[in-house]
Amino acid sequence: MGRLIVALSIITVLRLGLLAGRARDGPIRMTAQELPFVVPELAFEGTLKGGAPGETCALIVFFQPECPYCGQAADLERGGRGNAAHWVADSRLDASAFGDQIHMTSSVHWSAQLWADFAVQGVPAAFVVTGRRVIDAWRYQGSETAGDIEDRCRQ
Fold it and tell me: How far apart are CA 18 and CA 106, in angstroms?
């Protein structure tokens, strides 16, 4: 019995140490790039209000259809008002299979080059872009409001 308690105590201390280390590292990074960064010209129109007068932002969400979190985010977005997001897969097959899952104000695209330009590290990854400048990135939930995202545009 004494050995079991010692073993459980050691496991608990090790687990708490790992959790504390993970918390110090900060939030999960969705890109290998340092924010803000510039990408080549985008074909996406911004529909969200930006920080400067007349400035708009685009919401770009990178996804993979087999990702359960991507499906959940799409379901939440479809059930809400939608954010006019541009969902981007890295292949045409992935993009076409996902189109029915998103809100009608959003669109689905495919581009392996965009995945490389944004250095995507996980999905669903949301990016706010104004012009060619990427100003924010986070794990997309699908429940964000247009106001939440416009606040990110004004950073």
Answer: 39
CB 41 within 8 A of CB 30: no
Cα–Cα distance, 92 to 73 (Å, whole number)? 20
Residues 85-106 have pLDDT tens digits of 888 988 877 677 677 777 667 8
Dist CA 86 CA 124 (whole Å):
12
- Gap between the Cα atoms of 107 and 127, Å rounded: 15
CA dist., res. 88 & res. 140, Å (int): 13
Pairing of strands 107-110, 86-89: parallel
Query: Which contiguous run of DSSP H or E holds residue 61?
Result: strand 56-62
Confidence of residue 23 (pLDDT cuts 50, 70, 90): very low
Look at phi and psi of residue 54 and say left if phi exceeds 0, alpha if psi is from -120 to 50, else beta: left
67 CB-side CA count, 13 A: 21
Instruction: List domains and CATH numbers for the chain.
Output: 28-153 (3.40.30.10)
